[in-house]
Write a structure and sequence with these properties.
Elements lengths: L1 H28 L2 H5 E9 L3 E8 L7 E7 L5 H14 L10 E5 L2 E7 L6 H4 L5 H20 L2 E2 L8 E4 L4 E4 L6 E2 L2 H15 L14 E2 L18 E2 L1 H4 L17 H4 L8 H16 L10 H12 L1 H10 L15 H11 L3 E3 L4 E3 L8 H10 L10 H4 L8
Parallel strand pairs: 10-11
Antiparallel strand pairs: 1-2, 2-3, 3-5, 4-5, 6-9, 7-8, 12-13
Helix pairs in contact: 5-9, 9-13, 10-11
EC number: 2.7.11.1
Pfam families: Pkinase (PF00069)
Family: Belongs to the protein kinase superfamily.
Length: 395
């Protein structure tokens, strides 16, 4: 017992030391920050940035701000685009605004309004129907504005949609992965390229789980693929250049078209992520999928929707997915109810012992919206604008 307590103290001391070093590094990197703000502690960290809570010195500590320090290796174009997104979109419809941008040499800090928020794990298991409705409406309102400007957020997830449960305030943050897309350009490009991918060819047995390079095959002077539909990869395909398609996003929230490396991605990938958040809420799960890689993620999606539906989705994208067995899809409402029951636990808070209510029963309209958000086909997936007039969000 004493050993466990000692280890806990050591980890806490190391954490405090890392936090102190992070604050010191921020002040050294951009000296003017120290003149304007009192930096208190780190409130968040991502792959490309760290976020700190600070108060404006001239306000006697009353005005709070979130200072986002980007890592020095961030590409200037990436920084510029994130800055433009916040300037263009921020401050309205639950989207984070930008107060100030500070730069010193290669170090850049975005100064944004700070909003107190709760952790997703603290409320996901006991959200009421009304609360879920308000939450999803706010998220889709923010995305409607983003998508109207032909921008894809690309990293929609609970930690990027802040929620202050006490005052019912919401904020969509982190446009570090955001991209512009041109709808007219997509319309002109797609059909010819997809048809080229989808050419039918005679194939051999597909029901073998092993998929390996065919190093033992005889050398063939033909440039035609020798492995189509087989559980192996021929040398011709191995020599092909890698298919380029954005994979940006967070595991567990990536849409099927992202996992299948479809190059012509649209704002529909944000809608899929919305669906995954709603699936977490309706099932009372902190994280529904925990996929370590894209293949596992696709397999997890298949367990919900079934192998035939995933194969149909892949075919529409000019891709082919082979399964070792045929998996049937599940009824999403029944699945959510089972998981909700399993995840119903008692947990302690500082003020009281709180039990997850057993009587939260979502109407059929909620599950209908969920299925439309999680449509495997990005072309028929509901848009943010359409979702906002859905019966569940307007009842």
């Amino acid at each position: 017992m004493e050993s466990k307590v000692w280890n806990l103290h050591v980890r806490q001391a190391e954490s405090d030391n890392d936090e102190k070093n992070s604050c010191t590094n921020l002040l050294k990197s951009i000296p003017i920050v120290n003149k304007l703000f009192d930096v208190h502690y780190k409130v968040g960290k991502g792959a490309f940035s760290s976020v700190f809570l600070a108060t404006l010195k001239s306000s006697n500590g009353h005005r709070k701000f979130a200072l986002k320090q980007l890592i020095p290796t961030c590409h200037p174009d990436r920084i510029k685009h994130e800055l433009q997104c916040m300037q263009q979109l921020g401050g309205k419809d639950h989207i984070v605004g930008l107060e100030l941008c500070l730069r010193h040499h290669s170090s850049v800090v975005f100064v944004m309004p700070y909003m107190r928020h709760d952790k997703f794990s603290e409320y996901v298991q006991d959200m009421t129907v009304e609360e879920t409705r308000d939450y999803m409406k706010a998220l889709l309102t923010a995305l409607q504005r983003v998508h109207k400007h032909n921008i894809i957020h690309r990293d929609v997830k609970p930690s990027n949609f802040l929620y202050d449960r006490k005052y019912r305030r919401y904020l969509l943050v982190d446009f570090g992965l955001a991209q512009e897309y041109q709808t007219e350009k997509l319309k002109k490009i797609n059909e010819a390229s997809i048809k080229a991918f989808g050419t039918k060819r005679k194939r051999s047995n597909e029901n073998n789980v092993s998929l390996q390079p065919d190093f033992n095959a005889r050398k063939n002077t033909s440039s035609k693929c020798q492995c189509f539909g087989k559980p192996k990869v021929c040398m011709i395909c191995l020599r092909e250049p890698e298919q380029l398609a954005s994979r940006a996003g967070t595991p567990g929230f990536r849409a099927p078209e992202v996992l299948l490396k479809y190059p012509l991605q649209t704002s529909a990938i944000d809608i899929w992520a919305c669906g995954m958040i709603m699936l977490c809420i309706l099932s009372g799960s902190q994280q529904f999928f925990r996929s370590p890689n894209d293949c596992t993620a696709l397999a997890e999606i298949t367990t919900i929707f079934g192998s035939k539906e995933v194969q149909k989705c892949a075919q529409k994208l000019g891709r082919k997915v082979i399964f070792s067995e045929n998996l049937l899809g599940q009824n999403i409402k029944s699945l959510c109810l089972k998981l909700k029951q399993r995840n119903k636990v008692t947990y302690d808070t500082e003020s009281n012992i709180h039990k997850v209510p057993a009587d939260i029963e979502y109407p059929k309209e909620a599950y209908n919206l969920l299925t439309k958000l999680l449509d495997l086909d990005y072309k028929t997936r509901i848009t943010a604008e359409q979702a906002l007039v859905h019966p569940f969000l307007n009842s």
